[in-house]
Amino acid sequence: MLNDAHKLHAIEVYLQCFQQTFENNALLELFCHLVDEPCFDQLRTKEQLGYVVSAGTRRSRGVQGFRVIVQSAREPDYINQRIELFIDSIKEYISTMPDELFKKQREGYMVKKVEVPKKMHSQGNKFWNEITNHQFCFDRPQLEVEIIKTLERNDLLRFYDHYISPHSIYRRKLALHVNPSPLALQQANDETNTNENEDELDAMNDVELLSNADEERTQTEVTVPVDLNHEAIKLIELPIIIDNLVEKKSTEPEQSLPKKELNLPKVEWIDNIHMWKSKLSCYPLAQAYDKIDVPVLCKL
Predict the structure, then answer these.
(1) How far is CA 10 from CA 1, 54, 68, 90, in A?
(2) CATH topology of domain 2-180+256-299
(3) Domain locations along the chain
(4) Which of 30, 38, 82, 229 holds its CA 20 to 30 A away from the CA of 276?
(5) pTM (2 decimals)?
(6) Which letter, b or e, does each residue of 166-201 get, where b requires 16 or more Cβ atoms within 10 Å of its Cβ?
(7) Within the chain, which residues score under 50 in pLDDT?
(8) How far apart are alpha carbons 12 and 10 in whole angstroms?
């Protein structure tokens, strides 16, 4: 996909998991809650891939999954590798997490989930979301919190190994790449050249103003009477000399993850989405919760 408006690249990595049920919702949301902060810290703060970095759930027509979004000046292929390396490190992060920290994170998310919206608009959106999805579960937070209480570390690791791990044979991944079009790159180059010319003009004006100020300052004479029997002494004010102390700071971004590349499955590029979708079976529609017997998680 080409973008005519911006010169930056963007990628969304979506890992499809399962249908929406109370158990599946609670499991996926707790997993995303634990992973969101490490994802931002690694890809945004340490590696500085881009300004926009987020991880969370994605739901559509009764099906949900885990997604990572990054907007960056780097190529999407490189960003995809860094995202995969981060996903590969999630298992170690969850496995080595202290028990107290895991319980604290779980309890914190439970409190956040049942928090009453501060605005009527937010509460109304929650209710309308249930109506438009034909699910009509208006007490969803309270019901799912009761399930989150029972989730343990092994449940998250089992979920990760089956749906999220790059080494899982059951993994279903969709990566959307957005690249700048030639028009966007040309506009960006024109803006860069214009800004450079303006900066050069401003710098020349600043130098001229400073030189004029220095000349006026050096020509300033101050007369100080010393004694009645002596002539006045002329003091010439000299320009101030400022020592520029430049601190050398490392501009290399910190990378705690290795620079190796994972052996990912062969990529299937989709040029015509409509033709590709026409070859697939009908997409499963959202069902009412009372008609779903066994959650997918119990079948693992």
Answers:
(1) 10, 12, 11, 22
(2) Cytochrome Bc1 Complex; Chain A, domain 1 (3.30.830)
(3) 2-180+256-299
(4) 82
(5) 0.69
(6) eeeeebebebebebbeeebeebeeeeeeeeeeeeee
(7) 220-224, 226-250, 292, 294-300
(8) 7
